[in-house]
Design goal:
CATH class of the largest domain: Alpha Beta
CATH superfamily of the largest domain: ATPase, nucleotide binding domain
Strand order of the largest sheet: 6-9-8-7-10-11
Distance between the termini: 8 Å
Shape: globular
Order of helices and strands: EEEHEEEHEEEHHEEH
Number of strands: 11
Number of domains: 2
Radius of gyration: 19 Å
CATH topology of the largest domain: Nucleotidyltransferase, domain 5
Structural class: alpha/beta
Strand content: 15-25%
Number of helices: 5
Largest sheet: 6 strands, mixed
């Protein structure tokens, strides 16, 4: 595939790493589609956890990662065909870095918890992400306004806006702390990796865990591309 574009199509944007020059870019979906139409010679490797329709009719060579592919990890998950490719890809990439047992927490549109024990993906949990919680309370009630994240939120909300902040910004951190503690205890996991666009919102003591570098998803794709190339499965 030469020097492919590594892509991660999310629910709101597309992250792309050009392996020919290590240039990192972010596109809207329409911008990404237009770019590919102008560069039909560029090959692509990655996943679309958001929407694959943007690729329809393109002339580019596209290799989508699939949970059906040969992978470093084994799995005891009951429904691999419904497992999010992003969850599977990130866990496999971290395993390739020498981690055999870990909890991987991703913080994006949803918060996901992914358990790998001795090289086997066991499963985990999915809950609404930060923005989704605010949006849901606004859309599914008649009177609650749409609020947004603030680092100034406190446990006691003394206004409706403050109460919404407490119910999301404060509560989600406590939820994540408790989920990490329970998963770590139940499966004897000492290694916790937290990644995703909203991971920077987490305060101490969560900072005591391992926080992935920004754009770790694209680093993971690069590691998986190397694995696929080595095993002749591109």
């Amino acid at each position: 595939m030469g020097c492919p574009l590594l892509f991660d199509v999310g629910n709101t944007e597309v992250k792309v790493l050009d392996t020919s020059n290590q240039d990192l870019r972010r596109f809207s979906k329409d911008e990404f589609r237009a770019y590919l139409e102008e560069h039909p010679d560029r090959s692509l490797f990655g996943y679309a956890s958001g929407d694959k329709l943007i690729f329809k009719g393109l002339k580019n060579t596209i290799r989508f990662i699939s949970t059906a592919d040969k992978a470093p990890l084994k799995s005891s998950y009951e429904s691999m065909n419904t497992l999010g490719t992003d969850r599977w890809a990130l866990c496999n990439a971290y395993f390739l870095e020498g981690q055999t047992s870990f909890l991987l927490v991703t913080m994006g549109t949803c918060v996901t918890y992914n358990v790998v024990k001795e090289g086997v993906f066991l499963g985990g949990a999915i809950s609404p992400g930060w923005d989704m919680r605010y949006t849901a309370m606004n859309m599914m009630t008649a009177g609650l306004p749409l609020e947004i994240y603030t680092s100034e939120s406190s446990l006691l909300g003394t206004s409706t806006m403050g109460s919404l902040n407490a119910g999301v910004d404060v509560a989600i951190v406590k939820e994540i702390e408790a989920m990490i503690a329970d998963f770590s205890s139940s499966f004897q996991l000492n290694n916790v990796l937290i990644c995703g666009g909203h991971s920077g919102r987490l305060p101490n003591p969560l900072k005591n865990y391992i926080f992935a570098p920004v754009n770790y998803e694209l680093h993971a794709l690069g590691r998986l591309y190397e694995y696929y190339a080595e095993n002749g499965t591109l």
